[in-house]
Each structure stands twice: as structure tokens, then as C-alpha cells.
């Protein structure tokens, strides 16, 4: 989904709002395991990964409160 989303892992707090927002929008309930975006951390290193089932809904971007996920320039915010 890198063609739609700018990813800034250094801004991520690992709050998991993006993962929970995706699952709620697409399944109607909160589930980290149902999300198509995975956020993980090891020490101070944060990894943000879009899985193959990502639909490009940008719900993760909408609910990222810290600027770690932003729509690419030219896309609606």
C-alpha cells in the first residue's frame, strides 16, 4: 500500500489505533488479528507493514494520531 500511504515509523507510538480501525471498518469489531496493517516494535525500532489483503481504504491513516501514516500527496486526506 506504499503507493497510497507515506509511512513514518519514527513517529509511531505503537498505539495500534490503525490496526483496530481497519478491523472495525471492515469486520464490524475490533481485532488485531483481522487487520491488514501490522505494527510491531523491537526496542526502539518500529515496523509498519501492509499485508496482501489491504484494500486501500485508508482507515488506518484516518485514525493515526501521531503522523506515522499519511496519505501520499495528491490523495484526499
CATH architecture: 2-Layer Sandwich
Summarize the helix and strand pattern as letters. EHEEHE
User: How many strands, what sense, and barrel or not for the largest sheet?
Assistant: 2 strands, antiparallel
Terminal CA distance reads 15 Å
Number of helices: 2
- The averaged pLDDT comes out at 91
The number of distinct β-strands equals 4
The overall number of domains is: 1
Fraction in helix: 10-25%
User: What overall form do the CA principal axes indicate?
Assistant: globular
Gyration radius, in Å:
12 Å
Strand line-up across the major sheet: 1-4
CATH topology label: Alpha-Beta Plaits
- The helix/strand class is alpha+beta
Which regions have little confidence, pLDDT < 50, spanning 5+ residues? none
- CATH top level is Alpha Beta
Which percent band covers the strand fraction?
A: 15-25%
What does this entry look like structurally?
With 77 residues, this protein is α+β, with helices and mostly antiparallel strands. It has a single domain, classed as Alpha-Beta Plaits (2-Layer Sandwich). It has two helices and four strands. The chain has helices at 17-27, 59-63, and strands spanning 5-7, 37-42, 45-50, 69-71. The chain has a two-stranded antiparallel sheet. A two-stranded antiparallel ribbon has the order 2-3. β2 (37-42) and β3 (45-50) form a beta hairpin. It is globular, with a radius of gyration of 12 Å. The model has no long low-confidence stretch (mean pLDDT 91).
